[in-house]
């Protein structure tokens, strides 16, 4: 067992209790007459008459039913199931006795309450284990006190405490009331990883039944009596602001209660504030359809305050940035220029990717109820703490007067890291003096901005006469940021290495999009290395393994983000599982491996071409994310990442004319559909006892490289520009 | 505004709404049946799929005035206890990630299986192509549809 010092003490417990207004945690009720949190016991545990709060994560009922609060936003990455699993493991209760509830934002109890960077499990691993272990210890201490024994005389497992040298047993439910008064231990013992019973198994999604029966779960489903609905209209193009609109006409429309221009500018904006349009037309009313009709009737005067950009201009800016832009960040090992001069072969290729939208299927929305001295916010946010801060600034209210509750979220992908829609809801609520739910239409959502930046990068490699890679360089430009990770592979594996990052301006707003920058660099780098391996006359996996060998035995330079052994490990695993080296008639193979968000993923694609249409027959994935928490859900994440990678690199793009995106809805913006998805994706995890890392993002990036490499094998053409369907050899 | 008597999930509902209002918003805003989701509003994503009689239709572009006395079934009324074979198959395969599109997927799949109880992979893809899953759970959806097809024939 590992001993670990807890950071809980009585003071933080009290602080948290006070912050939540007397009770530990206050949830919110859903629709009238519909109690979403009514316990629905599955395995015969009765509904408790009384609940006892053990700590901020755990509440135990007198029947032994356990409520575990899941701290982080659930965007589909399974944390509402997998985070409580970790608590339940250390608490040691049967999973069927566990109910899960979403915790509200509470910075006193929880750390890192956000969904981003594939960090939920990684950052909370210790805190969740401690929460469970602390609870278990307190229950055992209560039982020991009851029986006049020492804790070391007892064992606890599956919700039952037993006397080691005796017959007595007591359930968690029976002892819970007495555990409440126990001093929080300064030190707790964690289980040995080999003793895990729940972690590493497959547990079904805790919201499954609600999802398949259509229960209210999402922000858009939230309702409170007396609330109004609101929609916004933002300027039709980047570089425009609103001047005025036909206010009187709109206000006279059926179902419209109010219409006005709202300003959502906050002082000293943070990283999650700087997106979107700050002045918006807001229309408030009773029903969504009437608001949509009012939006159609809007006649606004828009003022052009900036350049109205086009896709053509964007390409020119990126080319100019690559040719003469100022390098912001770089890494240099050896003397790349001199090495390129003496190289026997030089390969230089340019890769590009367009702006893309997140397109979460649940459009942006938020509920806000702002009063004179408080603000209550409920809805889908990946960053509740940032939202709390921004609303506090907007309304000039102290932080403790702002509460944020999280609903289940209909897709994140980075989009809901940005808090503007919550801030907009708060601004509208303040103006109308009552509760309101803001709803974006799909068009509002797709044309609002916060896109994945557009990128263009030049990769260059030099091989000596023995086909060894002696020099490598990457120069990446982007609107507005360059897509380069200077200390990632192949840094450390090549004697002479240069990485340069260049930014170029745009007034199109951008943000983190699932696996930021990696969603481009992986595809470009892995397609490039495939071409270099071919020029070197080497098998693409062997070529990469040679490089990892160098990085293991004699790494170049000081800083590397990756562990070369684990990187090589996933490549070797996928090589074995896919039977790399074997061929099937008319089936074309590509491979890629990438490390990002602390997780290693290698993928092999088998594709066939049917009259120019891509069919991905099978994908093998080898993943090293350390300990796997919820196995089947982890596979689901990797499968989804692969499909997302195929979809966006193959079919999706946003193009611009006169400052406005040409695609406003799913009729013109292509997202991958059933018939285009890979037919089979098999996922293999490297088994080890390393602390777990995230899976929300790492499955996506290598899919783009593996697909590009398979497409080359199928068509004889290399794919440099996303989306690949715009290239002549394949049909979208 | 006009009065309508709608048959929804076996119950008659009286409503006074703008006749152009799509059923999606009648369900969500007026009847608080929010299982049917808004995704695009232009029949491109399938999140709003309901049954009109035995047919899967997109409720976002179906005006309330066009329904007449046809039976409407939503995800809330697909089964009494969430035990329709398609719902059970979805649970068994643990299909969802974010879950937002799944009500529409389930409504489309259940209408499809009623017409074609033993579909091939290609038939499933063809029938389900109008339902977008942004999280990419397509493989699991297909598997769940096959699971449901198998349990139905047992």
Word description of this protein:
- The complex is a heterodimer of chains A (732) and B (154).
- Chain A is an alpha+beta fold and 732 residues long.
- Chain A has three domains: 2-213, Aldehyde Oxidoreductase, domain 4 (2-Layer Sandwich), CATH 3.30.365.10; 219-305 and 364-439, Aldehyde Oxidoreductase, domain 4 (2-Layer Sandwich); 343-356 and 451-726, Aldehyde Oxidoreductase, domain 4 (2-Layer Sandwich).
- Chain A is 29% helix and 24% strand.
- In chain A, a hairpin with a 2-residue loop joins strand 24 (588-596) and strand 25.
- Chain A is globular, with a radius of gyration of 27 Å.
- By secondary structure, chain B is of the alpha+beta class.
- In chain B, 36% of the residues lie in helices and 16% in strands.
- In chain B, strands 2-1-5-3-4 form a five-stranded mixed β-sheet, with helices on both faces.
- The relative contact order of chain B is 0.16.
- The chains are: A alpha+beta (732), B alpha+beta (154).
- At the A-B interface, helix 5, helix 7 and helix 16 of A face helix 1, helix 2, helix 3, helix 4 and helix 5 of B.
Mean pLDDT across all residues of chain A, rounded?
A: 93
What's the helical proportion of residues of chain A? Answer: 25-40%
Helix share of residues of chain B?
25-40%
Alpha-carbon distance between the two ends of chain A: 55 Å
CATH homologous superfamily grouping of the largest domain in chain B: Beta-grasp domain
Give the terminus-to-terminus CA distance of chain B. Answer: 49 Å
Secondary structure class of chain B reads alpha+beta
What's the shape of chain A? globular
CATH superfamily of the largest domain in chain A: Aldehyde oxidase/xanthine dehydrogenase, molybdopterin binding domain
CATH architecture of the largest domain in chain B, please? Roll
Which secondary-structure class do the elements of chain A indicate?
alpha+beta
The sequence of SSEs of chain B as H and E is EEHEEEHHHH
If helices are DSSP runs of H or I spanning 4 or more residues, what is the number of helices of chain A?
17
CATH class of the largest domain in chain A: Alpha Beta
Overall pLDDT confidence of chain B: 96
Briefly note the CATH topology name of the largest domain in chain A: Aldehyde Oxidoreductase, domain 4
Largest interface: A-B, 70 and 61 residues
Radius of gyration of chain A: 27 Å
Label the CATH architecture of the largest domain in chain A: 2-Layer Sandwich
Give the neighbour order of strands across the main sheet of chain A: 12-13-10-20-17-18-19
The overall strand count of chain B is: 5
């Amino acid at each position: 067992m590992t001993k670990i010092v807890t950071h809980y003490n009585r003071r933080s417990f009290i602080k948290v209790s006070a912050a939540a207004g007397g009770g530990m945690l206050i949830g919110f009720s859903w629709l009238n007459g519909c109690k979403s949190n009514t316990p629905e016991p599955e395995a015969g545990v009765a509904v408790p008459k009384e609940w006892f709060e053990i700590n901020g994560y755990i509440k135990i009922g007198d029947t032994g039913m356990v409520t575990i609060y899941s701290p982080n936003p659930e965007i589909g990455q399974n944390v509402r199931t997998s985070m409580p699993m970790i608590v339940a493991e250390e608490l040691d209760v049967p999973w069927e006795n566990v109910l899960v509830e979403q915790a509200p934002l509470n910075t006193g109890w929880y750390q890192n309450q956000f969904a981003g960077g594939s960090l939920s499990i990684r950052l909370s691993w210790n805190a969740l284990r401690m929460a469970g272990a602390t609870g278990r210890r307190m229950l055992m201490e209560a039982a020991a006190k009851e029986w006049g024994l020492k804790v070391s005389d007892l064992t606890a497992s599956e919700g039952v405490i037993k006397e080691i040298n005796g017959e007595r047993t007591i359930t968690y439910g029976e002892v819970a009331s007495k555990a409440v008064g126990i001093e929080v231990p300064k030190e707790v013992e964690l289980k040995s990883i080999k003793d895990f019973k729940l972690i590493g198994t497959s547990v079904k999604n805790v919201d499954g039944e609600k999802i398949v029966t259509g229960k209210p779960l999402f922000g858009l489903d939230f309702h409170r009596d007396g609330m109004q609905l609101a929609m916004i209209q933002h300027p039709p193009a980047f570089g425009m602001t609103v001047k005025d609109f036909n206010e009187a006409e709109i206000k006279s429309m059926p179902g419209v209660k109010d219409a006005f221009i709202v300003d959502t500018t906050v002082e000293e904006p943070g990283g999650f504030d700087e997106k979107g349009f700050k002045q918006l037309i807001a229309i408030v009313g009773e029903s969504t359809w009437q608001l949509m009709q009012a939006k159609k009737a809007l006649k606004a005067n828009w003022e052009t305050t900036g350049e109205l950009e086009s896709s053509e201009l964007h390409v020119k800016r990126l080319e100019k940035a690559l040719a003469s832009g100022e390098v912001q960040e770089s890494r240099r090992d050896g003397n790349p220029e001199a090495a390129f001069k003496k190289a026997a072969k030089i390969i230089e290729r340019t890769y590009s990717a367009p702006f893309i939208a997140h397109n979460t299927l649940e459009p942006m929305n938020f509920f806000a109820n702002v009063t004179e001295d408080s603000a209550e916010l409920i809805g889908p946010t990946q960053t509740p703490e940032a939202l709390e801060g921004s609303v506090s600034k907007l309304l000039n209210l102290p932080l403790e007067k702002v509460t944020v509750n999280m609903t289940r979220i209909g897709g994140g992908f980075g989009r809901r890291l940005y808090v503007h829609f919550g801030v907009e809801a708060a601004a509208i609520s303040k103006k109308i003096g009552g509760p309101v739910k803001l709803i974006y239409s799909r068009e509002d959502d797709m044309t609002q901005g916060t896109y994945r930046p557009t990128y263009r990068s030049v990769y260059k490699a030099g091989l000596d006469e023995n086909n060894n890679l002696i020099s490598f360089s990457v120069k990446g430009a982007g609107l507005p940021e360059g897509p380069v990770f200077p200390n990632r592979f192949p840094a450390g594996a090549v004697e002479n290495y240069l990485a340069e990052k260049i930014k170029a301006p745009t007034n199109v707003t951008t943000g983190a999009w699932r696996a930021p920058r990696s969603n481009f660099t992986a595809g470009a780098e892995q397609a490039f290395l495939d071409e270099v391996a071919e020029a070197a006359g080497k098998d693409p996996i062997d070529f990469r393994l040679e490089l990892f060998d160098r990085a293991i035995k004699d790494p170049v330079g000081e800083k590397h983000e990756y562990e070369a052994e684990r990187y090589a490990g996933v490549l070797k695993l996928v090589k074995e599982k896919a039977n790399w080296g074997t061929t099937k008639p008319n089936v074309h193979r590509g491979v890629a491996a990438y490390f990002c968000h602390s997780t290693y993923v290698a993928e092999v694609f088998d594709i066939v071409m049917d009259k120019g249409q891509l069919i991905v027959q099978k994908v093998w994935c080898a993943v090293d994310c350390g300990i796997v928490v919820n196995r089947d859900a982890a596979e689901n994440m990797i499968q989804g990442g692969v499909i997302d990678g195929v979809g966006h690199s193959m079919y999706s793009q946003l193009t611009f004319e006169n400052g406005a995106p040409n695609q406003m809805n799913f009729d013109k913006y292509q997202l991958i559909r059933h018939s285009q998805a890979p037919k089979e994706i098999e996922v293999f995890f490297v088994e080890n006892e390393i602390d777990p890392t995230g899976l929300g993002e790492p499955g996506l990036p290598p899919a783009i490289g593996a697909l590009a490499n398979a497409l080359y094998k199928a068509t004889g053409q290399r794919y440099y520009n996303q989306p690949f369907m715009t290239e002549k050899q394949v049909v979208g | 505004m006009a009065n309508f008597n709608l048959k929804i999930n076996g119950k008659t509902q009286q409503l006074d709404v703008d006749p152009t209002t799509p059923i999606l918003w009648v369900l969500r805003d007026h009847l608080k049946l929010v299982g049917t989701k808004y995704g695009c509003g232009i029949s491109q994503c399938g999140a709003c799929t309901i049954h009109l009689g035995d047919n899967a239709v997109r409720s976002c572009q179906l005006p309330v005035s066009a329904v007449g006395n046809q039976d409407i079934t939503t995800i809330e009324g697909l089964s009494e206890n969430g035990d329709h074979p398609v719902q059970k198959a979805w649970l068994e395969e643990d299909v969802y990630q974010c879950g937002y599109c799944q009500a529409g997927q389930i409504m489309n799949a259940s209408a499809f299986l009623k017409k074609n109880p033993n579909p091939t992979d290609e038939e499933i893809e063809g029938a389900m192509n109008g339902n977008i899953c942004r999280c990419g759970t397509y493989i699991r959806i297909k598997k769940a549809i096959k699971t449901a097809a198998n349990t139905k024939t047992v």
